Amino acid sequence: MPTALITGATAGIGAAFARRLAADGFSLVLVSRDETRLAEAAERLKQKYGVAVDVLPADLATDDGLERVEARLREGVDCLVNNAGFGHPGHFLEVPLEDEVRMLKVHCEAVLRFTLAALPGMRARGRGAVINVASVAAFFTRGTYSASKAWVVNFSESTAAEVGDPKIRIMALCPGFVRTEFHQRASMDVSGIPGFLWLQADAVVNEAMRDLALGRTVSIPDPRYKAIVAVGRLIPRGLTHRISAMIGRK
Ligand SMILES: NC(=O)c1ccc[n+]([C@@H]2O[C@H](COP(=O)([O-])OP(=O)(O)OC[C@H]3O[C@@H](n4cnc5c(N)ncnc54)[C@H](OP(=O)(O)O)[C@@H]3O)[C@@H](O)[C@H]2O)c1
Question: What is the distance between the alpha carbons of residues 16 and 178, in angstroms, rounded to a whole number?
Answer without folding.
Answer: 11
